[in-house]
Amino acid sequence: MAVPPRRTGKTAKALRRSHIKLNSAALVECSNCGAMIKPHHICPKCGYYNGKKVVNVK
Ligand SMILES: [Zn+2]
After folding, report:
1. Does some domain include residue 33?
2. Residues that place a CB less than 5 A from ion ligand 1
3. Distance, CA 52 to ligand 1 centroid (Å)?
4. What is the pLDDT along the chain (58 residues), one digit of tens a residue?
5. Beta bridge partners of residue 49, listed in sequence order
6. Any idea what the Cα angle at residue 50 is, between residues 38 and 52, rounded to 5°?
7. How many domains, the chain?
8. What is this structure's pTM?
């Protein structure tokens, strides 16, 4: 049931919001160059994806 905002104390709000936070970004090591990259993304350092060179990076 809905509770008026003035009836919800600071502690109850803080406890409810204790789960609201940013998560650290998931990173995996590139199998080709070892750089930390996002999973399921082409490596921006070497242009490899799934063991193959798919884009040219300078
Ligand atoms: Zn790489």
Report:
1. yes
2. 30, 32-33, 35, 43, 45-46
3. 10
4. 888 999 999 999 999 999 999 999 999 999 999 999 999 999 999 999 999 999 998 7
5. 52
6. 120
7. 1
8. 0.58
